Recover the amino acids of this structure.
């Protein structure tokens, strides 16, 4: 059974990231924006059994992962569109992506992502080929080895989802704050 993407369009997460950058007194250039959206789509799919965050297709552009519809929509300026309220799980994910990867330079993000198999395989097929959600889940959902740099975004690996998603802080029965993560059953190959 097909599940709809969490957000009704790619505009909601895009505007969220742009506004978050402004709140942090940063300029978010289009290249970096697309790298962060790509990572958000990938990690959301990992955390949610292959479901998409946004109804979008990322392609292996010669410059790096790119969502062509959003790229064209923002080509001259910030478009005027009616936005839906962004769901809380999307906001939590985007906040985690921003905190984990937002400090990286555009060049670092581009260099690393272009060497990751989802992008590299699609680009080897043909420049402009679609980067599949299955490829994203397979690569970003695995546990990296020490050689790849556990917890780091490198050209050989990416942090495991547990190092990306911020835990929610809830209160125990005694009122003490505790971190909680969404339960994700282990796959058969992890056992």
């Amino acid at each position: 059974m097909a599940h709809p993407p969490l957000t009704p369009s790619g505009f909601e997460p895009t505007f969220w990231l742009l506004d978050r950058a402004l709140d942090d007194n940063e300029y978010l250039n289009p290249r970096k924006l697309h790298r962060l959206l790509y990572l958000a789509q990938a990690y959301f799919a990992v955390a949610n059994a292959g479901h998409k965050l946004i109804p979008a297709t990322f392609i292996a552009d010669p410059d790096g992962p790119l969502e062509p519809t959003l790229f064209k929509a923002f080509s001259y300026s910030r478009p005027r569109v009616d936005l839906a309220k962004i769901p809380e799980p999307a906001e939590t994910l985007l906040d985690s992506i921003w905190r984990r990867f937002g400090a990286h330079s555009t060049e670092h993000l581009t260099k690393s992502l272009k060497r990751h198999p989802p992008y590299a395989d699609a680009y080897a097929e043909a420049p402009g080929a679609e980067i599949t959600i299955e490829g994203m889940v397979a690569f970003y959902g695995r546990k990296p080895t020490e050689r790849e740099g556990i917890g780091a975004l490198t050209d050989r690996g990416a942090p495991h989802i547990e190092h990306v998603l911020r835990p929610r802080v809830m209160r125990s029965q005694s009122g003490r704050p505790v971190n909680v993560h969404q339960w994700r059953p282990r796959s058969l190959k992890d056992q």
About this structure: The helical segments are 11-23, 30-47, 68-73, 88-101, 106-115, 117-125, 133-140. The chain has seven helices and four strands. The first strand starts at residue 59 and ends at 61.
